[in-house]
Specification:
This protein is α+β, with helices and mostly antiparallel strands and 417 residues long. It has one domain: FAD/NAD(P)-binding domain. Helix content is 34%, strand content 32%. Strand 17 and strand 18 form a beta hairpin. The longest helix has 29 residues. The radius of gyration is 23 Å and the shape is globular.
Length: 417
């Protein structure tokens, strides 16, 4: 039996923050704000310098935010900061086609007037959303930002999680959250494997100005080499997400602006008049990637760190925002009940909520891409008739509209409006 004289009471472990978030892109700051507003302290670690995140010139990048995502941003106090710079998506037109031939006669046509909630979503430039999130974090006393420093090691113990930074600094917390993208170092260091495959496609992302107004209509053209999305921005501008074979995309990205537009026009068409390039061009190799687990010991993955999917339905950021809302709700409810927010039981609730949904969405986008990204003469009439059939059934069509607006499934409370 131990000698009572040798007993000692150890003080409880003190943490730098309740939550450590690795990644300062969009999901990381949104999650930090959601948790801080619920009373938790948060440290956000961003490898990029703060000045890089604050660049305010339009660079061509924009996001299609589903209505449910804008509700989350409203809940976080962000939407009022950016709404005046957004463009409502009032209609979505989905067609099959070939470059130079125009769209097929059958199409899917979604009109926001068929649902009661309002526009299906909004287009918002990256510069406006990113800066609004950064400014909101600056104003939140429960959030600590660490910029221009990267995580080189992480570990968990029975009473804490800890990260070591390249600068040598060590930071501790109760829960570690990886919001660090598809090549997530957080997941890799935790031993979480990934499954997936390359599509042999690259998404070219840019913006164009055009002569004619877009009317708030988003277009998705399914071309043999990959889909082309034309998404409305404020004024006579549109965001372009052009999926091409990687070999052709590599050639297109080396072209001067005029040659690039000449390559785009046959797919884009002339329905908006003359077009001109706005901002920069970006290229993103396309790959399906799913983490084998969304949680580990005192750890959770959010957004692309957990799942990366084809941009065919523009749901990448929206899926990440659902992760943010779900994890924030799980942790804050557990805290309110007096539970250990880092326990395996609590984190398992987040995984159960989000893993099946994101896997189903990723596989659906994969299937659509495989079905439409070809010029098979047998498949083309079948898929065109299928779109026409869906479009002709009001109940089915409204279901797709609600799906596009992010209003289906088990929504977190902050996304219900």
């Amino acid at each position: 039996m131990d000698n009572p004289d040798t007993w000692r009471i150890l003080p409880p472990m003190t943490h730098d923050s309740d939550i450590l978030i690795i990644g300062g892109g969009l999901n990381g700051p949104a999650l930090a704000l959601a948790l801080a507003r619920a009373g938790l302290s948060v440290t956000v670690i961003d490898a990029l310098p703060k000045a890089t995140r604050e660049l305010s010139d339009f660079d061509g990048r924009s996001y299609a935010l589903a209505l449910a995502s804008t509700r989350l941003l409203d809940h976080l106090g962000i939407w009022d900061r950016v709404a005046q710079n957004s463009q409502p998506m009032l209609e979505i037109k989905v067609t099959d086609g070939r470059a130079g031939d125009g769209p097929a006669p059958w199409m899917l046509h979604f009109d926001h007037a068929e649902i009661e909630e309002g526009p299906m979503g909004y287009m918002l430039e990256d510069r406006h959303l990113r800066l609004a999130l950064l400014n909101a974090m600056e104003e939140e006393p429960r959030i600590t930002q660490v910029n221009a420093d990267s995580v080189v090691d992480q570990c968990t113990a029975p009473d804490h999680a800890a990260v070591t930074l390249a600068s040598g600094r060590r930071i501790t917390g109760r829960v570690l959250v990886g919001c660090d993208g598809r090549a997530s170092g957080t997941a890799r260091r935790a031993g979480i494997r990934r499954t997936g495959w390359n599509y042999g496609q690259t998404a070219i992302v840019c913006a164009v100005s055009h002569e004619k107004p877009h009317g708030g209509i988003a277009h998705q053209f399914f071309m043999p080499h990959g889909p082309l999305a034309i998404l409305p921005l404020p004024d006579n501008r549109s965001s372009i997400v052009w999926s091409e074979t990687t070999a052709r995309a590599d050639r297109i990205m080396t072209m001067e602006a005029d040659d690039f537009l000449d390559a785009l026009r046959p797919a884009f068409g002339s329905f908006l008049g003359e077009i001109a390039l706005e901002g920069q061009r970006f290229a993103y190799p396309l790959r399906l990637t799913l983490a084998s687990a969304f949680v580990a010991d005192r750890l959770a993955l959010v957004g692309d760190a957990a799942h990366g999917m084809h941009p065919i339905a523009g749901q990448g950021l929206n899926a990440g925002m659902r992760d943010v809302a779900a994890l924030a709700e799980v942790l804050t409810e557990a805290r309110a009940r007096g539970e250990d927010i880092a326990s395996a039981q609590v984190l398992a609730r987040y995984q159960k909520w989000r893993r099946f949904d994101t896997a189903a969405l990723a596989l659906a986008t994969d299937s659509f891409n495989r079905l439409f990204s070809n010029d098979n003469p047998l498949l083309r009439p079948i898929r065109d008739l299928g779109m026409g059939a869906v479009n002709a059934v009001p109940g089915l069509r409204r279901g797709f509209i609600r799906e596009a607006a992010g209003l289906t499934g088990d929504l977190p409370r902050s996304m219900r409006g």
